[in-house]
Amino acid sequence: MTIWKLVTSEILHRRMNFALGVLSVMVASASFIGSVTLLRIHDLRTGQILEVKQEELAKRMAELKDDTRKAMLKLGFNIVILPKDQNLADWYAEDYASKYMPEDYVHKLANSGIVTVRHFLPSLQQKIEWPERKRKIILVGARGEVPNLHRNPVKPMVQPVPPGTISLGYEIHRSLDMKVGEKVKLMGKEFTIHACHKERGNKDDITAWIYLAEAQELLDKQGLINAILALECICAGMDVLPLIRKEIGAILPGTQVIERGSRALARAEARTKIEKEAQIAIEKEKLGRQHLRAVRERLASILTPVIVTACAVWVALLGFTNVRARREEIGVLRTLGVCRRGILVMFLSKHILVGVLGGVLGFCAGVLAAFYFSTALEGKRIWITGMDLSMAGLLVLSVGGAAALAVIAGWIPTMTAIRQDPADVLREE
Amino acid sequence: MLEFKNISKWFDGPEGKVTALDEVCLSVSPGEFLAVRGPSGCGKTTLLLTAGGLLRPNAGQVSLDGNDPYALSPEKRSQMRARMIGFVFQQFHLIPYLTVQQNILAPSLALPAKGADQRAQELVSRFGLDDRAGHVPAQLSTGQRQRTALARALLNKPKIILVDEPTGNLDEGNADIVFGYLSQYVAEGGCVLLVTHDARAAAHATRTLQMVDQRLIE
Q1: How many domains does chain B have?
Q2: Do A51 and A149 reside in the same domain of the chain?
Q3: Would A71 be classed as within a structural domain?
Q4: Measured between alpha carbons, how far is A112 from A80 in angstroms, rounded to an integer?
Q5: Average pLDDT by stretches of 10, chain A with 429 residues
Q6: A132 lies in which domain range?
Q7: Who's near A388: CB < 8 A, 6+ residues apart?
Q8: Is the domain of A232 the same as that of A306?
Q9: Which of A39, A370, B155, B167 has the smallest CB count inside 10 Å?
């Protein structure tokens, strides 16, 4: 005969008492596990919602970026770097600089490690009389973009005019009836028409573009340029110009930077605004979910202890009932020489068994209930395979906690049992 | 084996001190079957519980096999009880959810010993309970329950058996069977202290004492 045999036989004999004890612990454990699992499901669902929103935002931003890029291709650059001594009033009046700076500046800038600007295009511009055609035009000498070696190389936004060719604005080629491929003479030098642009409704319509070195030669400005067109690519909106000025000023002290209002910039700013608004919407969603979580957590923090306490009281009452029913048995066992420790082990073993069984069942019930209620609370059933949940750890916590609960709840009844005087029982006969 | 020297025991009740034993002296030796007779409420059960190390006297000294059980710690006193004393009660006090064989084995919870199972099986056979070994007390007759209780008392081969009204719930035939077993135990060198109000029980004892007004008289 062993204590274990005695415990199991007694459990089978008083099945209802044992079942009610297990049920109580199971309810306590299930309420705890259910709360924890539901909160984890909430977190998981929050992650999923935010991930979807972030993906949508990223997709939208990619679309907007592409739009901006297309706009830039059409509208040109929005930052102009001019020689420091250039009178801006003259520049605004003439739309080109009358002062010059070394072409080397653009290389210095490209190799400087500047981070706010990505695209550089040096140009030499001057309003001239086209002697062969008796027309006033703006002659622009341009070359391909100078790559910023410190930024990721990107597709050039402006294609260079090949040497020996000329690109003509709409008003020029329309009024002079010129076509692509025809030969024209400009200041005594022959060029092949490379492109005839569509109408833009700005000074581009009276502009002719040739290769930079050829423009320098024709205008007798070898090694000089009068503007570097640049695009600020960080697209951070209205506050970015001072930053760009500071950075360029440090690299090229002999220059000044002005911003050219353009639809591209407006778009970039709109894009930034949309991104900010979307981020705010995501933050709001996040805060909403956090608030909901806090409400649920608060509810769980009230309900769970109440349920656990009620169950513990119930287990204690069942324990007292059991001790009362076994009063004679305890007296007899003590009379037969079973010491108090033996009685203690006998009762605690039963409570531990109640706790372990209740913990396992409570764990299963709590997890299943959480998955069931996740449909109602989250609008979606979230299964265990998709959860970032240490189920084994939670099971151990459930079983350990439930066993502790049962032992604590059963401690006073157990103490009552071991303090029972066998002589009292026998004298009552 | 068992000796009482001027044992007194009283209880504090709502109406003041209630004396249960008043300077009781007795001794029981191996091979002796001592019967203590007296009416209900005269202190017989108190005498038995005091002898069994379950009820500490207020005065006097108890000696069991030369040792005072009340000088021992509760744990050691429990061990001593398991090792040396067997109990038989009027109400049998069998554990309701254990079978006959398991009830007989119950003292091994306190004093685990090799061969306890075999010893229990022997007792089952000796007390004619073979066909009831797997039954629980509720399925037994009164006589079978008392025989089970007696077999349980004998499992650890005690030096003394303390018996309280063993035949109170038995018919004459079953009572004779129980006394027969007790007499056999005494004949084998054991000793029995029996308290009863039944005059028939005294017929089986080697010595009988009367308990009157919480005192023992020859």
Answers
A1: 1
A2: no
A3: no
A4: 17
A5: 90 94 94 89 86 86 70 58 88 83 88 75 90 90 69 54 92 92 92 91 89 92 89 53 81 84 60 79 88 90 92 93 90 90 92 94 90 78 59 86 92 90 79
A6: 77-261
A7: A40, A43, A44
A8: no
A9: A39
* Chain A environment of B64 (Cβ under 8 Å): none
Per-residue b or e along A25-49, where b marks 16 or more CB atoms closer than 10 Å to that residue's CB: bbbbbbbbbbbbbbebbbebbbeeb
- My answer on whether A85 and A16 are in the same domain is no
> How many C-alpha atoms does A148 have within 13 Å on its Cβ side?
22
CA dist., res. B208 & res. A96, Å (int):
141
Contact A341 B75 (CB under 8 A): yes
> How confident is the model at residue A151, as a pLDDT?
52
Identity of the amino acid at B16:
G
Q: What share of residues in chain A are helix, strand, coil (percent, to 5)?
A: 60, 15, 25
For residue B211, the enclosing domain spans: 2-217
Same domain assignment for residues A55 and A108 = no
Domain contains A266: no
Cβ separation B109–A342 shorter than 8 A: yes
**Integer Cα distance of A35 and B33 in angstroms:** 69
Report the sign of the C-alpha dihedral through residues A22, A24, A28, A30, in that order. positive
CA distance A35 to A28: 11
CATH number at residue B169: 3.40.50.300
Residue that finishes a domain, picked among A261, A296, A311: A261
How distant is the Cα of A342 from the closest Cα of chain B, in angstroms?
8
CB contact under 8 A, A329 and B95: yes
Q: In this structure, are A289 and A331 located in the same domain?
A: yes
List the single residue in B54, B96, B109 with the smallest CB-CB distance to A13: B96
Lookup: tokens for A55: 């993906």
Residue with tokens 């511009």: A125
pTM of the model: 0.66
Statement to judge: residues A293 and A420 lie in one domain:
yes
